[in-house]
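Record 1 of the preview.
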Amino acid sequence: MKSISLRNQKGISLVETIVAVAILGTAVIAFVVSLSVGSLATNELDKETIAQGLAQTQMEYIKNYLYNPEATTYPVLTPPATYSVTVNVSAVLGADTNIQKITVTVSKDGVILLTISDYKVNR
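->
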């Protein structure tokens, strides 16, 4: 049976160990930061998508609603919790009384996310 000699073998030095841990730590931190940034981007995209859907649905509802030449607003559909929808109606300057400019504003927790405008015509 041969005996194994360990005298000529060197182990990993402390400096090499610290460098390896630093590289591993940097990789883990970069991964965690990318996950948090991705989560924030997903939340923003969700808010934007909901706001666009609410604004478009509200605008279609108003366009299908009975025309009122004296209106300053039209009925608002019930938005999800923490969201609010406002509708403003204004006369179009230089046009007859059969056209209105409709502005729909969607906000979440008091912060305006989206504003769209379109026209409603008395047909």
